[in-house]
Specification:
The chain is an alpha+beta fold and 79 residues long. The protein has 2 helices and 2 strands.
């Protein structure tokens, strides 16, 4: 499961479009809900960066990623 979650994180990071030209690292915590089939069910900020434009960019990145790899065997759908 950790590899699956890491894959979701990598896909989201590839879809981030920074709101400015800054190269300063900014961290946004996300809660992403994905079905066993890989469909995005929801996303929310779990830890704000303190900068709304970066938080919104992170949420847009999740929505751009849209579909993810199927969950590994034995992984239950969110309840």
């Amino acid at each position: 499961m950790n590899a699956w979650a890491a894959g979701i994180g990598r896909k989201v990071q590839r879809n981030v479009v920074r709101p400015d030209a800054s190269t300063k690292p900014v961290n946004v915590g996300l809660r992403v809900t994905v079905s066993r089939s890989g469909k995005l069910l929801g996303a929310a900020i779990s830890r704000s960066s303190g900068l709304a434009q970066y938080d919104n960019a992170a949420l847009r990145a999740v929505k751009r990623a849209r579909r993810f790899a199927k969950a590994p065997n034995g992984f239950a759908d969110p309840s």
